[in-house]
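Quick one, T. Sequence first:
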Amino acid sequence: MVLAAARSAFLELGLEGASLREIAKRAGYTPGAIYSYFSSKEEVYGALLGESLERLNAHVGAAEPALVSGHGAAARSRAAQATLRAKATAFFDFYRESPRDLDLGFYLFHGMQPRGLTPVLNEQLNARLRDALAPTQQALVELGVDAGAAQSEVTALFAHIVGLLLLSHTGRIRMFRQESQALFDRYLDELLARCAPRRVRRTAH
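Structure tokens:
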């Protein structure tokens, strides 16, 4: 009940505009009762974002790649490509279908800043976000991309996803007469095309 009330308060008022008193009111609690669970509204926010990231990881984890037949290096390459596509698409779809989670995760639209989150809590939340991207990064490594380049590619993919969804959820993408899903699919196709030749060259050596 507290987290549901906090979600509505943060999304309506922003992290700065919401207060524990407001959260308590929406949850039907007294402020003192809230303090028995959370020491600050930032701690409530951390718990709420943590719950959102757990759902993200579950969504990505449940994404099944297309079945690939055959054996050998070519089949393994196709399997890695299928995994990359499935896991990256699941990440994109989670935030496309749940814009409030994107809003919550990136302090958007209300001038929110991540003040008050302890370094430990901030790193824990960041780690869960990285966990959701890890299957995509691992698929790149399996395609023959070295670890450093794979991390760079995943960082670029993440930035692309966030940018597309921000434009889509705010309606700004209409000024370009584009659609976020089509642009994401094209980016993913280009990423796979960039990575596939690396595997071929590596095998040739």
